Amino acid sequence: SNSSSSTCKDHQQPSINNNNKNRVINLDHGDPTVYEEFWRESGEKTTITIPGWQSMSYFSDVSNKVCWFLEPEFAKEVVRLHGVVGNAVTEDRHIIVGTGSSQLFLAALYALSPTDSLEPMSVVSASPYYSSYPSMTDYQKSGLYKWGGDAEKFEKSGPYIELVTSPNNPDGCVRRSVLNRTEGLLVHDLAYYWPHYTPISSPADHDLTLFTLSKATGHAGMRIGWALVKDKEVAKKMTKFIELNTIGVSKDSQLRAAKVMRAVSDGCELQGDGESFFKFSHKLMSNRWKQLREAVHRSNGLFSVPTFSPSFCTFFNQNLEPHPAFVWLKCEGNVEDCERFLRGHNILTRSGTHFGVSQQYVRISMLDTHENFMHFLHRLSTINSR
Ligand code: PMP
């Protein structure tokens, strides 16, 4: 279609307007359905068939002394993809697979907390922090670890775990640890350290790093994440946690993940027919952010969003601006509760209070379907004109 002309866009908007005023636009979760369009096109390249007799055993690789449920095929593609993208060092690292990086997050807390301590280990992260960290840390009232709140305000002496999310959920900022004490243990959650969201500056080289396919390729439903771990004993304890928790990680999912990751790496290396996944997703995110900034600009100061300066991306070999997976929107002026205000306009978002900051902020997903995103932009514009 000839959607590039602005008159054409104007013609499309009234139909959205007339039919869907009361439609609820839910952008509370970060469900990455935006990439479905790309994967539909990939066909056989990302399809696997699993006969009934396959993947029956609990065990994947008994020769792996650190993680016996890790599928070698999957491990190979993890190493290859990081090599192709240049976003993490994999040499001398132990790979632990998890049911999403969520399971690995809990495995990391378990592995890093001393068992003989009189009180639980404090778990902290600089606010605004990913809203699931406090609840995931405390929901089982563990004796091993306990949520300690905003890292910037953490004053207790002794050992602690600091969660460093970079780029950060919700605000998209590049981060490093804020507490630099010798007793501190770090968990780097690099769920969004991929070229479509942020310029790749150098291969991450930390003690314990978490990645997830959910945000990398958008396959959240596969529930596959991985940890790159330096210390062998920590890696073994993480394996132990997953053993106690789910006796391993779905082989079917690992094999499917391997196939998808192979297609991504092939697409980047061969560059022959068709577009690589990151080129596609980068262009898409770049477009969305451009449209969003235009909509916010039209609000005449009712809303504001963060601005980011460009930096060099070693993957795309050029200076690029970040395009975070979420908008960290602020209601300016006299709107106090931004989440409630937008809910009044049938837009569901997540309040800043979940991330440890004020209710003037909300987090809005940028990864929803094209249809929902277009409705959202249009709805924002109608708020502005009032
Ligand atoms: N870490 C961060 C920062 C996230 O945003 C998410 C997903 N919202 C996760 C971890 C969990 O991802 P998953 O369990 O799907 O791998």
TrEMBL record:
Q: Which residues form a coiled coil?
A: none
For whether the record's keyword set contains Transmembrane helix, the answer is yes
Which InterPro entries has this protein been placed in? Answer: Alliinase_C (IPR006948), Ethylene_sulfur-biosynth (IPR050478), PyrdxlP-dep_Trfase (IPR015424), PyrdxlP-dep_Trfase_major (IPR015421), PyrdxlP-dep_Trfase_small (IPR015422)
Keyword Membrane part of the UniProt annotation: yes
Q: Tell me any Pfam family this protein matches.
A: Alliinase_C
Region of interest called Disordered, as start-end residue ranges on this chain: 3-23
According to the entry, every stretch annotated as the Alliinase C-terminal domain falls at: 25-383
Query: Which SUPFAM superfamilies does the UniProt entry name for this protein?
Result: PLP-dependent transferases (SSF53383)
PANTHER family referenced in this protein's UniProt entry, alphabetically: BIFUNCTIONAL ASPARTATE AMINOTRANSFERASE AND GLUTAMATE/ASPARTATE-PREPHENATE AMINOTRANSFERASE-RELATED, TRYPTOPHAN AMINOTRANSFERASE-RELATED PROTEIN 2
Instruction: Provide the family line.
Output: Belongs to the alliinase family.
What is this protein's name?
Answer: Alliinase C-terminal domain-containing protein
Organism per entry: Stylosanthes scabra
